[in-house]
Design goal:
14 helices, Growth Hormone, Chain: A, 2 domains, mainly alpha
Length: about 375
Amino acid sequence: MLLSLTLLTAAVPAERRGMAYGIWGAVNGLAVASGSLIGGAVVEHISWQWIFWLNVPIGVALLPLARLRLVESHGPADRLDVVGTVLASLGLLGITFALIQGNIDGWTSAPVLAGFGLGAALLVAFVRWELHTDAPMLPMPLFRSRAFSTVNAAGLLMYLGMFGSIFLLTQFLQLIQGYSPLEAGVRMLPWTAMPMIIAPLAGALSDRVDGRLIVATGLALMATGIDWQAAIAEPGLSYAAQVALFAISGVGMALFFAPVSALVMNSVSPAEQGIASGASNALREIDGTLGVALLASVFSARGGYGAPREFTDGLTPALWVGTSALALAAVLVLLAPRQRPAGPVAEGKAPALAAPGPARHSASV
């Protein structure tokens, strides 16, 4: 799944990639929106353990589709970077564990300090290993590209702020405002479903104008919606007062999804697109995990799950942390080098990302 952007880039001509990335973003939005609804229904009417079983029939159904419709391709490396994978996984595990346990065991407790220390040491070892191995999982020279580094740093901050905020706001709807899991999923739709509508338009627009401006606008809208939510968060807050803010954040998220994919893929050479796609999507998952852990830690330090007022006392500073991350991400995106759109302005020139011949037949992706 992490290679879906690579397949799309190879299958679609350069001048239409923005639209393709937009559709890709809309499909991701559909997954987010339907996931919260289906997950809420499963938790409410069956049991939470069934959310894991839902993936089994989906995976089984997609296996023959992938076998029949996707064209095989090969990256430049002929072996897996097992050592790099282990170092990165354990390093991130240590840091995530420390963030989660900080408010439980104390930030100066031995397990938390050990988690931070060991996690950081393993990540340093991972970077050193990647610099010297012949087949790195994540080639460090990619980060010499200012476009690749700044866009991925902005993505880290965006997913950290967004996932952490959605996690807490969903609990606010259920625990403080009294909605069931399914009802909370429905009421989050103005946020989670917006990419289905806006992302294709944003993707098409990124074929014509500087994608950095679209992404920065989206980040600013998300920061505005979440900051406003933090300013009005009260135990007796009505849903009507929140729905417009959810919609603003949803439009911002949609404006981010499609153009940022184009920015990442255009920042590397065609041979590096598979690694760039995998790295960016993997960072998204890591950033979401760290975002939930970090904002939940801020929430626990300032509030808790006792009285409604205690909940909002923790929610407000946590949302401000998410807002700050999104605002900083907007600044970072604008620091990235400007990329020429692949539309009419580049007509007559070779596309920036030449697709390998056989992969052009994978348009059915």
